[in-house]
Write a structure and sequence with these properties.
branched-chain amino acid biosynthesis, leucine biosynthesis, manganese, binds 3-methyl-2-oxobutanoic acid, 16 helices, 2-isopropylmalate synthase activity, alpha/beta, two-stranded parallel ribbon, eight-stranded parallel beta barrel, 399 residues, binds zinc ion, EC 2.3.3.13
């Protein structure tokens, strides 16, 4: 059977999107999702064009095991995946939960940084490497699609990281993932780690190099995109940037950025259907009970809103003046113009035209003066406020 990763990687510039909303995202929620909710989200992710769906951590609970099994049974085009520590019982639980699918991935991981190996795992580096190699070999008994992650790679000694990646690939890992587990690195530094691996690991071309960035310093998207520029070909991310602490890299941000700036990043593209972003984001927000922040890039309520008069005037003349992507491309209804004291006459006039009041049917100078007084008092002025102003002006004229 042709390995799907090798198939994708042989297409130049194809960046795989590995979604972990149901695993890394879900583990940070205050209330777990039900198996049905997880399935609903998984099917939406598949429809969005996600390549790999990390459906859960089967050893962690019976509920998670069942959800992973249910999702693996239903996916048709996306590859189902489960997480396992580098221990046989976790890998066996993954294999059991996923074997209902024709093709599936087992994702096994172990920490590689000094702080984690010494303080958390209390093992020597040689012991860690032996566990990683044994885990990858064990997972290969279940599937030819095995991903290995070096947890806290962002803070791992470079020589040890190269050694671990080489060993994991030799043991049979087809994807090697480099997590910035605590969101510690800055883009040039993280990109440097990826280019070091590309240059120093002799068998790196035998696996897909993946990245998994957390957002503790707000760098997750920048780090992931810099990694792609340096040769990474899988990004791990969550819808709406959900995840531990400040969250994981946000799926919609990397998908939109690669769509718009893929040429700048080395002629790359993803399989994400951009016009499904709005509805997937809304579904995840509703099911997880985690509202999308208003100013969140790409999917926030304000992401396509224009408030200042200068911006509104520009957008009314040509949307590209202040919109690098259109909301319609992402599946939203359209942009939003906030009428405030910063709005100009052009905005007021075009709103009234859209409401059915043609230019010349009212005195724009008078109306605009009243509009500014109202906006100063009220903040945001709505369509119905403008209509009320027109009505009061017509009464004054009648007097
Ligand atoms: O952040 C992390 O390191 C992880 C691993 C399990 C991939 O989530
Ligand atoms: Zn993570």
């Amino acid at each position: 059977m042709t390995d799907p990763d090798v198939r994708h990687v042989s297409q130049p510039g194809r960046v795989l999107i590995f979604d972990t909303t149901l695993r890394d995202g879900e583990q940070a929620l205050s209330r777990s999702l039900s198996a049905e909710q997880k399935l609903h989200i998984a099917l939406a992710l598949e429809n969005l064009g996600v390549d790999v769906i990390e459906a859960g951590f089967p050893i962690s609970s019976d509920g998670d095991f069942e959800a992973v099994r249910m999702i693996a049974q239903r996916l048709k085009t996306a590859t189902p995946c489960g997480l396992a520590r580098a221990v046989a019982k976790d890998i066996d639980a993954c294999g059991e939960a996923l074997r209902v699918a024709d093709h599936f991935r087992i994702h096994t991981f172990i920490a590689t940084s000094a702080i984690h190996t010494k303080e958390k795992l209390r093992k020597s580096y040689d012991e860690i490497e032996a566990m990683a190699v044994a885990a990858v070999k064990h997972a290969r008994r279940y599937t030819d699609d095995v991903e290995f992650s070096c947890e806290d790679a962002g803070r791992t000694d470079p020589d040890q990281l190269c050694r671990m990646v080489e060993a994991a690939i030799r043991a049979g890992a087809t994807t090697v993932n480099i997590p910035d587990t605590v969101g510690y690195t800055v883009p040039t530094e993280f990109g440097g780690i990826i280019s070091m691996l590309m240059n120093r690991v002799p068998n790196i071309d035998k696996a897909v190099l993946s990245v998994h960035c957390h957002n503790d310093l707000g760098m997750a998207t920048a780090n992931s995109l810099t990694a792609v520029e340096m040769g990474a070909r899988q990004i791990e991310c969550c819808v709406n940037g959900l995840g531990e602490r400040a969250g994981n890299c946000s799926l919609e941000e990397v998908a939109a950025a690669i769509h718009l700036r893929g040429a700048r990043l080395g002629d790359v593209h993803t399989g994400i259907k951009l016009n499904q972003i709005a509805r997937t984001s809304a579904l995840v927000a509703k099911m997880t009970n985690e509202p999308v922040p208003n100013h969140k890039a790409i999917v926030g309520g304000n992401a396509f809103a224009h408030s200042s008069g200068i911006h509104q005037d520009g957008v009314l003349k040509n949307r590209s003046t202040y919109e690098i992507l259109t909301p319609e491309m992402l599946g939203f209804d359209g942009n939003v113009m906030h009428m405030t004291a910063r709005s100009g006459r052009h905005m007021v006039k075009s709103t009234l035209t859209a409401l059915g009041y043609p230019e010349g049917s009212y005195n724009l100078d008078q109306l605009y003066a009243k509009f500014l007084q109202l906006a100063d008092r009220k903040g945001q002025v709505h369509d119905y406020d403008l209509e009320a102003l027109l009505f009061s002006m017509s009464l004054e004229q009648a007097d």
